[in-house]
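retry 2 of 3: previous attempt timed out while embedding magnesium ion. Reduced batch size to 1 and resubmitted. Inputs unchanged:
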Amino acid sequence: AEISVVGLQSSGKTSFVNVIGSGQWSEDVVPTIAFNYRKVRKGAVTLKIWDVAGQPKFRSMWERYCNGVDALVFVVDSADQEKFDTACFELHQLLAQPNLTGVPLLVLGNKNDIPSHASVKDLIRDLQLDKIQDRPVSCYSCSMKSQHNLDIVLRWLSDRSH
Ligand SMILES: Nc1nc2c(ncn2[C@@H]2O[C@H](COP(=O)(O)OP(=O)(O)OP(=O)(O)O)[C@@H](O)[C@H]2O)c(=O)[nH]1
Ligand SMILES: [Mg+2]
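retry 2 succeeded.
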């Protein structure tokens, strides 16, 4: 399957791809410039992953790298509640693109190793996930640092593979 990983800067997109790709967690990840492309094999499934940059100047590129994928992964830093409004805006802006209609969405509330993180219930409310009607939506709380819930995230991705 081909997937795109988007979300605001520093939410943990590259960490996610590194952890599922090589099991490698690091505190020092450089901010992505434009995008990284990576193929990850998990059992019988090969994931082709576009890891797209989240800084404001790169956000207009998200649509281009999401075009034609089998699933969208939107990563949120669930401990950085001040950015939820911006994350919500950027997410819904992306989903409004006509060519992305129907593409399944996985929202990851990352960094749940940080005690003040928002719950899945908070994320559903603050990112207005219940307003999304034109595609399957899932939302999990997880941590790339502790690898919490990585198993269900991988299962979700494998289920979208063909
Ligand atoms: N505590 C904690 N820190 C994390 C976690 N995931 C990522 N980080 C840290 O968050 C910072 C940003 O991670 P990146 O993976 O570079 O974020 P990004 O979304 O790829 O950022 P851009 O490429 O700029 O869009 C790094 O210092 C990571 O080590 C997590 O689950 N817990
Ligand atoms: Mg990155």
